Amino acid sequence: MEVFRYSQARTVEGAVRSGGAAGSSFIAGGTTLVDLMKLNVLQPRALVDINGLALDRVEPLPNGGLRIGAMVRNSDLANDATVRQKYAVLSEALLSGASPQLRNMATTGGNLLQKTRCYYFRDTNYACNKRQPGSGCSALDGFNRIHAVLGGSDHCIATHASDMAVAMMALEATVHTQGPKGERAIALDEFYLVPGDTPERENVLLPGELITHVTLPALASGTRSRYLKLRDRAQYEFALASSAVVVNVSGGRIERARIAFGGVGTKPWRSREAEHALEGQETSEEVFRRAAEAAMADAKPLKYNAFKIELAKRALVRTLKETTQAA
Amino acid sequence: MSTSIIGAPITRIDGSLKVTGAALYAVDHPMDDIAFGVPVASTVGNARIVNIETSIAQRMPGVLAILHHGNTEQLFRPAEQLEPSSRAGEVRPPFEDDKVYYYGQYVALVVANTFEQAQDAASHVKVDYEAHPNVVEIAAAQAPEGPPRIHYSRGSAGEAFESAPVKIDETYEIPTETHNPMEMHATIAKWDGDKVTLYESTQGVVNHQHVMSEMLGIPLDQVQVIATFIGSGFGGKLFPWPHSLLAAMGAKRVKRPVKVQVPRSLMFTTVGHRPLTQQRMRMGATRDGKLVSIQHDVLQPTSLVDTYVEQCTGVTTMLYSCDNVAAKQTLVPMNIGTPTPMRGPGIVPGLFPLESAMDELAIKLNLDPLELRLKNYAEQDESYNPARPFSSKRLRECYQTGAERFGWSKRTAQVGSMKRGDEVLGWGMGTATWHAGRGTATVRVRLNADGTARASCATQDIGTGTYTIFAQVVSEKTGIPIDKIEVVLGDTSLPDGPTSGGSTVTATVLPAVTQATQGAIDRVIAAAQTLPSSPFKRVSAGGDPPTLKMTAGRIHAADQPPESGMPFQEVLAQKRLAALEAESRTAPDPAEAHKFSAHSFGAQFLEVAWDPGIARLRVTRGVTVIDAGKIINHRTGRNQILGAVVMGIGMGLFEETIYDPRNAKPLNNNFADYLVGTNADIPELDCIFVEYPDLHVNEYGARGIGEIGLAGVAPALTMAVYHATGVRVRKLPVRIEELMAGQRTMTA
Ligand SMILES: Cc1cc2nc3c(=O)[nH]c(=O)nc-3n(C[C@H](O)[C@H](O)[C@H](O)COP(=O)(O)OP(=O)(O)OC[C@H]3O[C@@H](n4cnc5c(N)ncnc54)[C@H](O)[C@@H]3O)c2cc1C
Ligand code: SF4
C-alpha cells in the first residue's frame, strides 16, 4: 500500500471538487478499493471519504419507481421491504453476493464500480491491459475458467463480477451522477463499456463524477422477477453464470421480458436477443431454450470456460420456468 | 465424583478465554519495543538471484534492517533422522544460497518499527532474477530418478491380476491442497543475551525447539518455544518453517523482539501443502467378489529442497484381505514449496483410489458396495508377515450401524434411479481408518493447599480440546471439580510432551496424566499418614496405618466413605505444605506394540442431491460411525469427527491449489479464490461412536480421532456423485464442467 491523503466530504459538491483532483478516489465501503490498495493494484494519492454524504436512503418515487442512494448498504437494500416485494430479483442478487460482513459495508455505488476478480489484474507481477494499458493480457493463455465468454476482446476477457448490477440491468435502472459539469442520468445499459482496446475504461464516468443514486422504473402489476446464481459452492463465491429475469406473462404468453446475465460477460450482460426470442411467445421450455441459444449465439469459449455457455443457458431456462409458472 | 467425567460431553475449559478474546495466540503476546518483519518472497519459480536492490527501501521511514543471503550468516541444517525429536518443514534454511527453487520463497526480510513501514519497504525491495523454466506440472516434469521411495509386495500381485476374471485399472488424481487454518503461521522472536524465546503457532513446541536449536546453531537450553493457543494447523504446523528462523535472525540483527506473520498468500507457498498424487489402482477379483490382487502405484511431486513422501499405499496393504498386494511410490521434484502432512496424511489420499476402485469393482460385479467390503473384510492385519491381530476392530459394526442409520437398504443401484422432486439423489459410502499411535510424554501434577490442582506438560492444544482432557483425568482421579484444575501447556520450559499430530496426543498423554496424578495423590496420602493427630490412626486395626485413598477431593480410609476422611487441602495445611506434586513419564511398551496392529475404523455414508437442469450438486446428508475405542470427551470428540467430514466435503468438491505453469505461482492464494466449504454447503451431519475401549493402547482404551473423520469422505462423495449422475470423477475436486460433459455424452 502506498501512502495517501485522506479527507471526508461533507457535501456532494465538495466531494466532486476533491474527487476531481488527479490521483483522487472516492471511498465508500472500501471493500473493493482497500483490498486492491493492499495489493498495490490501485494506488490513489488521495481518498475522499463519501460515507458522510446523505445518500443512504431508499425512497419511493412519485411515478411508482424507486430511488436508491449511492451509499445505501447492500444488506439494507436487499432487506428493504419495497425491494423485496416489488424488485425480488434485486434482493436475491444482492443476497447471493459476497458474505454478510461484506454486504454490510458494500454500497450501491461501490458495487456498480467493483473491479474484476481476474487473478492477473490483482497481481502487479503480471501483464494486464486493464491495470497497465498496453502490457498484454495474461488471461488469454492463462487459467481462464472464471473469465468472460461474451464481450471480450484480444485485449481483455475479464468479467464484471457484480450480481447487483445484473439485476439492475434487467430492471432497466438509471445511474444518476454529479460531476464537474453538473448532473447526468445514464441508462445502466449505456453506463458500462466493453473492453475493446481500452479495457482500462470500464464505464462512462468522468474524473470526479460521483454516483449520487440509482433509480428503478415502476413495474407493471403482475411482473415477476428472479435471480439465479450458479457456482461451485453454495455461498461466498462469484458467479460462474447467473441470470436475472423480469417478466410479464398474460394468458400464457410473454408480454414483456428483460433478461441479463452475470459471470459470463465483460459487463453485466443485457440480452436483447433473448428478450426478442421471448416476447410474444408462449411460455414453454422450447421457447426458453431458444431464447437461451439466442443469448449465447455470439459467445466465445476459451480454454477453460466453455462450460459457462451451457451453464448460462440453463440458468436462464430455469429462471424463466420459475417466473412464468402459474403462481 | 465418579468416573463419569471421562467420556462426558464437557465443554472446553479454555472456551471462555477463546470467545472473549483473552486467549493469546502467537502474535498476541504483548511485548515492549517490538519491531515487525515482513518477508520479500520470490515472484518466479526457478531462478538465480542476480541482485537485491535495497537502497530505496533502506532509506524508507522506520526501516531497521533488510536481511538477505548476501548479508546474513549461514544457518545450519536440522539433524533430522540423526536425532529422535527433530524434523523441519523444510531442511534448507532461508537465505542459504542465491537460488530460487519455488515461487514464494523468502529472498529477503525487511524489519521496521511498524508493520506498515515494513510492508511498504518490502514492496520497494527490487530483486533481479536470472529466470529458468519452471516445472509445476507432473506431465512436464522429468522422469523420476532412482528407485521408488516405497516398495511393498506380498504374494504375486502382477500374475494374480493377469489371471483375475474381473479387473479394474484406473488412475485417480488428488490435486495440491493447501492448509488454511484460521490462524496463519507466525512467530515473535525475542533474544535475552544468547537465549531466544519464540512465541510460535506450532503443533509441536518440543520439536520446534530442537529444530531451531539445530538450525540456529545454539544449545537446546537456549531456545524456549511457547504456543499457548493455536488457531489450528491441520498438519501444516507440525514442523518448523523458515519464517521462524527469519524472526530469530531479524530479532538478533535489530536487537529487539521481532514479529513475523506469514500472510495468507504465502500460506500457499512456504508452509507446506498436501502434494498432488497421481495414483494408479489395479484390482483383480473372482466373479463372486473375492479380491485376488491389488496394485497401487503413486507418483507424487516434492520440492527441490526437501523430500516429502505422502505415504498413500500403507492403507492399501492392510484394509482388505487379499493375498497378492504390491505398492510402489515414486517422487518427482518440481518448482513448488515442500509438501507436508495435511490432516490424515497418506491414508486420506490413499483411500480415495482404493475405495473408489472398490466401488467401481462392485458395479462391475453387480454387488452392493457394502457387501463387497464385507466379503473382503480383513480379520487381521495382513500387511505384516506373519499377519498380526488387530488390538480391537469393530468395523463390521460400523458398517451395520451406519447402514441402518442412513437407510442404506433402500438404495436402488441404478444410476439416477433415486429422485426427490426435480433432484436426483446419489448415495455413497466409504471405509475410514487411521492407525492408532502412542508416544512418550512427561506430565507434572500438583495438588495445592488451596484445594486446587495444576497439571502441566509441554504438549499443546491445537484447538482439539487437549487442555480439557488433562483436567478431566485429574478430576476423575482426585475428585477435584474441573473448574478448580489449572492446565498449563504449550511451553518447552514444562516437562516434554508430544507433538499434536497423527491423532496421538490423547492416547499419549492419558497414561502420563493418570500416573502423575496418582503420584501426587500418593504423596498427599503419605503426608496424611504422618500427621501428628492423624484421624486415620483411629480406624486402623492392629496398629497398621489403614490403606488410604482420595475420593471427591478427600483423603480417607479405603474401607470407609469419603466423608469419614478430610479434604486433601487440610492435610497439606496441617503439614504446612504449599503443595505436593509428582511427575511421570510414560512410553508405550514396544513388546506390546509389536503384538498387535492398532487402528481405528469407521464407515461413512453420504447423500448428494443433483439438479441436472442447472448442473447443481449439493451434499444433503451424512452419517459417520467411528470405532476409536473409548471416547474421552463426547463433545470435543464429535467436534473432531464433524469438522473432519466438513473438510472431506471441501476436499471432494472444492479444494485445489492451482499453479500457473508460467511462473509457478499458486493463482488462487486467498480465501475468495481457494474454495473450502461454507456453512451453506454443509448439511446436518450425524456422528456415532461404537465404543469398545481398546485396553492394549492405554488404561482408558482411547485411540485418536483427529483425522479419521476425513478418511472415507471423498470416495463416498464421488461414489454418490456417480450414483446420481453416472459420471465417475477420478480427479478431484468434482467440477461442474466435468458433470456437464458427462451429461452430454450420456444424452448424446
Ligand atoms: C471476498 C469478496 C467477495 C465478493 N463477492 C461478491 C459477489 O459474490 N458478488 C458481488 O456482486 N460482489 C462481490 N464482491 C464485491 C463487493 O460487492 C464489492 O466490493 C462492493 O460492492 C463494493 O462496494 P464498496 O462500497 O465497498 O466500494 P468501494 O471499495 O468503496 O469502492 C469501489 C470503487 O467504486 C468507487 N466508488 C464508490 N462509491 C462511489 C460513488 N458513489 N461514486 C463514484 N465512485 C464511487 C470507488 O472510488 C472505488 O473505485 C466481493 C468482494 C470481496 C472482497
Ligand atoms: S483479462 Fe483483462 S483484467 Fe485479466 S489480465 Fe487480461 S487484461 Fe487484465
Notable traits:
heterodimer; A: 327 residues; Uridine Diphospho-n-acetylenolpyruvylglucosamine Reductase, domain 2; Uridine Diphospho-n-acetylenolpyruvylglucosamine Reductase, domain 3; Enolase-like, domain 1; 5-stranded antiparallel sheet; 4-stranded antiparallel sheet; B: 748 residues; alpha+beta; Aldehyde Oxidoreductase, domain 4; 7-stranded mixed sheet; 5-stranded mixed sheet; 29 strands; globular; binds flavin-adenine dinucleotide; binds iron/sulfur cluster
What's this, in brief?
The complex is a heterodimer of chains A (327) and B (748). Chain A has 327 residues and is α+β, with helices and mostly antiparallel strands. Chain A contains 12 helices and 12 strands.
How many domains, in number, for the residues of chain A? 3
Strand content of chain A: 15-25%
Shape designation of chain A: globular
Distance between the termini of chain B: 69 Å
Treating each run of at least 4 consecutive H or I residues as one helix, how many helices of chain B? 19
Per DSSP, the total helix count of chain A is: 12
Question: Overall mean pLDDT score of chain A?
Answer: 97
Given helix and strand content, the structural type of chain A is alpha+beta
Strand content of the residues of chain B, in percent? 15-25%
The CATH architecture assignment of the domain at 439-587 in chain B turns out to be: 2-Layer Sandwich
Q: What is the helix content of chain B?
A: 25-40%
How would you sum up this structure, described in words?
The complex is a heterodimer of chains A (327) and B (748). Chain A has helices at 12-19, 33-38, 74-79, 81-86, 88-95, 100-105, 108-112, 164-170, 188-191, 272-278, 285-295, 307-324, and strands at 5-8, 24-27, 46-49, 58-60, 66-69, 174-179, 182-187, 210-216, 224-230, 241-250, 253-262, 269-270. With 327 residues, chain A is of the alpha+beta class. Chain A folds into 3 domains: 5-52, Uridine Diphospho-n-acetylenolpyruvylglucosamine Reductase, domain 2; 58-113 and 163-216, Uridine Diphospho-n-acetylenolpyruvylglucosamine Reductase, domain 3 (2-Layer Sandwich); 224-324, 2-Layer Sandwich (Enolase-like, domain 1), CATH 3.30.390. In chain A, helix 10 packs antiparallel against helix 11. The longest helix of chain A has 18 residues, at 307-324. With 748 residues, chain B is α+β, with helices and mostly antiparallel strands. Chain B has a domain at 439-587: Aldehyde Oxidoreductase, domain 4 (2-Layer Sandwich). The longest helix of chain B has 25 residues, at 505-529. Classes of the chains: A alpha+beta (327), B alpha+beta (748). Chain A binds chain B through residues 1-3, 40, 117, 119, 123, 125, 138, 142-143, 228, 230, 232-238, 240, 306-307, 310-311, 314-315, 317-318, and chain B through 43, 116, 119-120, 123, 613-616, 618, 653-654, 658, 660, 662-663, 665, 667-668, 672-673, 675, 677-681, 735-737, 740-741. Bound molecules: flavin-adenine dinucleotide and iron/sulfur cluster (SF4). Iron/sulfur cluster is lined by residues 116, 118, 120-121, 128-130, 137-139, 156-158, 199 of chain A.
